[in-house]
Specification:
By secondary structure, this protein is α/β, with parallel strands linked by helices. The chain contains eleven helices and 13 strands. The chain has a seven-stranded parallel sheet, sandwiched between helices. Strands 7-10 form a two-stranded parallel sheet. Strands 8-13 form a two-stranded parallel ribbon.
């Protein structure tokens, strides 16, 4: 039985990846942070009592700020594969907390790699690199595009990316990076722009909200469907040699396009609800991200199956259903028809356990 350790298992990608690996027969170990409230709602539906003799999911308290603790977990678990997804992942927040972001998102990777090296455990390592690292570099961006970070988050990810390459080349560790473009889902954090919009669409329909405050509507992003991206993450660690891979759809859309698609899907005009608010603009933003994922397609046949319009419908359907309303249903149909196998509509985030906090970023 393969054994994997996932940092960031309570996040969007970590929760999908845990589901995927359990479906593949892995034993899955995950790092979670101690909090005074529940922060494990995304993995509640796959939680197993560790006393159960058949249990294959195990959770450990830990923090990316603490090398000794990470080294102990890696030494004791002795994973075959480490998926390092944990990070302070919000770009706007990184402008408010640059030092913390550098510590967790940048140095956190160095700590995990050093824990692997010191423990002497032979394991494959995955680094969650980001298209945000490309910054101003012209689109489409691929593995050879120069890195021109434009946020403290991107600068931290560039450090983490290069320290991964350094450990691969210095110590022969099987260390790979996935340079992933934006990917979204009903489990996306509520303060990222797509989820903020789809939650607002549902709240407007339910009569709970009549204003949506946003920042830069001109920014263009390459948005894909998160479960397809965790399939790519797994594939990256199954290659014969460690390498770096860009993952994205190759299409780009503006925030305005997303608004148009999401509101029109339920028969609303976004212009009647959206107001610009300076607090959501960033000191620097990236104008256009668009992936050239031809290397991943060539090396292991990865290509996205869910289109931009389908992604929007999946997310709106989920958020509308979450408020107890009947959704239009096209998104649900997409998931039923495309048959992911390991991931079905009814395995979405349990609505009752979701955070009720309003988006603040
Ligand atoms: P996410 O939902 O924000 O999840 C981040 C995870 O990291 C959460 O489990 C979080 O725990 C954990 N974490 C944060 N600080 C930590 C700390 N100090 N110690 C231990 N764990 C900590 O992010 P995501 O969207 O799943 O993304 C996964 C990874 O891919 C991140 O590294 C992100 O930067 C990167 N990435 C994401 C995208 C995207 O579009 N989603 C694209 C490119 C790269 P809590 O639940 O307790 O907060
Ligand atoms: N969050 C947010 N909130 N973004 C807004 C808003 C708002 O109210 N209004 C406009 N935007 C714009 C942002 O300025 C940005 O240009 C775009 O919407 C996308 O913002 P986010 O959804 O916050 O994502 P991101 O692109 O900054 O970062 C995400 O993708 C990266 C990969 O490119 C995160 O998941 C990062 O962790 C990831 O690395």
């Amino acid at each position: 039985m393969n054994r994997a350790l996932i940092t960031g298992i309570s996040g969007q990608d970590g929760s999908y990846l845990a589901e995927l690996l359990l479906a593949k027969g892995y034993e899955v170990h995950g790092l979670i942070r101690r909090a005074s409230t529940f922060n494990t709602y995304r993995i509640e539906h796959i939680y197993q009592d560790p006393h159960d003799p058949g249990a294959r999911l195990f959770l450990y308290y830990g923090d990316l700020a603490n090398l000794e603790q990470l080294a102990n977990i890696i030494y004791n678990v002795r994973p075959d594969e480490v998926y390092h997804l944990g990070a302070q992942s919000h770009v706007k927040v990184s402008f408010e907390m640059p030092e913390y972001t550098g510590d967790i998102t940048g140095l956190g990777t160095a700590r995990i790699l050093e824990a692997i090296r010191r423990s002497g455990v032979r394991t494959r390592f995955y680094q969650a690199s980001s298209s945000e690292m490309f910054g101003d570099a012209p689109a489409p961006q691929n593995e050879r595009t120069s890195l021109q970070p434009r946020s403290p988050y991107a600068a931290a990810k560039v450090y983490a990316h290069w320290i991964t390459v350094t450990y691969r080349e210095s110590y022969g560790i099987f260390a790979s990076s996935g340079i992933l473009f934006n990917h979204e889902s009903p489990r996306r954090g509520e303060t990222f722009v797509t989820r903020k919009i789809t939650r607002a669409v549902a709240a407007v329909l339910a009569g709970r909200q009549n204003r949506l405050f946003l920042g830069n509507l001109d920014a263009k992003r390459d948005w894909g469907y998160a479960p397809e991206y965790v399939e790519a993450i797994w594939k990256i660690l199954q290659q014969d040699r460690a390498d770096d891979f860009v993952i994205g759809t190759g299409e780009t859309h503006s925030v305005r396009d997303f608004l148009e698609e999401a509101f029109a899907y339920v028969g609303l005009d976004w212009r009647e609800y959206v107001t610009a608010d300076p607090r959501y603009f960033r000191p620097l933003d990236i104008p256009v991200l668009r992936a050239d994922a031809s290397k991943a397609n060539h090396e292991f046949g990865w290509e996205p199956r869910v289109s931009f319009g389908e992604l929007v419908r999946i997310m709106v359907d989920h958020d509308v259903a979450r408020l107890g309303l009947e959704p239009p249903g096209e998104g649900r149909k997409v998931l039923e028809e495309k048959r992911f196998g390991w991931h079905r509509w009814n395995a979405q985030t349990p609505a009752a356990l979701e955070s009720n906090l309003e988006a603040v970023w």
